[in-house]
Structure prediction request, 313 residues.
Amino acid sequence: MKQKIYLLGLITIAIIVIGALFKIGHWPGAGQLIILGIVLVVFAFLPLALRNHYMTAGNRKDPVLYIVTWLTCLVEFGGMLYKTMHWPGAGKILMVALPFPYVVFLPVFLAVTAKDKNFSIHNTVSVLFLLTGISVFSTLLALNVSKERIDDSMQLSRSYNRLEALLDEISPPAGRDPVVQKIDELLGLVDEYQSLILASRNISEDSWNNDPWSLRRPEAADIGTPALVTGGKNPSPDLRLQRSLESLLNDLENRPGYESLTTAAYPIFDFMERADDTDDWTMGKFFASPGVWSLTYLDGLETNLKLLKAGMH
Prediction:
C-alpha cells in the first residue's frame, strides 16, 4: 500500500512540475495540468497518505489532527490554484489561506502533541519552519502573479497607444454627424480623465503613452478614485463619462443599421445598462479597479471609440 501511495505522490508532483513548466513557457495545457495535479494531491494522495499513517500509528485517539491537516492543505493549495489561474476571488481566498495554518492547524497540532510525552520538540520546530515556508511561498506567488497581470496590462496599454497613433492619421468623416460629435466629446472626456489620474500620480500623459512602466505603484488601489471624485460637501464619482457613453449607445441603438453594433458595444466598452434611475457607476470594474487597470480601460475605450469613428465614413 505504501508503495502505491508513494507512486501516486510522485505522479502528482510530476504533473504539477510539468504544469508549472508549461505555465512558465506559456504552452497550451498548462492550466489543465496544474488543476489535475492539485486535485490529485488534495483529493487522492493526501487522503490516502493520512489514512495510511493514521491506521499504522500506535495511537488513534486524535483523528482531528488528520482532518485539520487535510483541511489546511485544501485551503492552501486552493488559494495557490486560484491565484495561479487568475480565477475570481483569488485574493480573498489567499487572505484566508495565509493565516489559516497558524489560526487553525497549529493550535490543534500543539494541543494533540502536548499529550504525547515521547513527542520531540524538533518535530514542532520542523512544523513551524514548514508553515513559514508555505506562507512565504504563497506570498511570493501572489506577488509574482500580480506582477505578471500588471505587466500584461502595461503591454496592452502600449498596444492601444500604438493603434491610436495609426487611427489619428485617418481623415475624419465629412460633415457634422451627431454621432461623430458625441464620439469626439467622449474622446475629450477620456483625455480629461486620463490627465486627472496621471496628474494625481505626478506623471505626464506623454510619459504614460511612451512608457507605461514609468507609472509608479501601478498596483495602488487609490489611483483613480480620488482623482475622479467631484468636490463639495458631498463628494461623488464623476459620472460624465458614463452618461456620455449612455447617450452614445442610445443614439446608435436608434440609428438604422447599427442595432447589432449597439449590442456588441456594451461588452466591448465593459459597460452595463442601469437597472434603475440611480447614479451608480456601471462601467464594469473601471472605477474600483486598482491603478494601471483604470488607465488601461481608458486606453482601450479611446481606441475603440476611434475605431467606431473611423468606421462611420
